[in-house]
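Glutathione peroxidase
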Amino acid sequence: MRALMVGCLMGLTGLSAEAAESFRFASIDGGEIDLADYAGKPVLVVNTASLCGYAGQFDGLQALHDRFGPEGVLVLAVPSDDFNQELEDEAAVKEYCATTFDLTLPMTEITPVRGSNAHPFYAWVRDQTGFAPRWNFNKVLLAPDGSIDATFGSGVEPESNRIAGRIEVLLQ
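Predicted structure tokens:
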């Protein structure tokens, strides 16, 4: 974690294969999800919450995963209780998302996304762009070079042209 913070402070500007540091998330399934593994492809990172009114967007996130995952695109759900709308633990989150939304896309453990306890990825996004999630289902789209391509609020649907269309352009 310290190395990740040092990388952020040193002006890390991307997640390319040449980057000295990369961002890693603890996977809800155990192990880690390393964004460096997706260098050269778009990555969509979304802070989620099972009990949020926007939880229906899990269907759109799964559709993006099904559509673009075979091309190497990562659609990553980051459950967070920062807005007090997440279930009590990872097992409950995983079961709820699997049974309610048939979710198979990668998910992290419950992770802080704002404030002083924010995951280093979210601290980096805030430092680079000023964007911090203001609610659940905020989205960060990374370009293939690891730079931040765009950020989106909760109301932007995953399958919208603003997101899915942009992923298509980034894959060209």
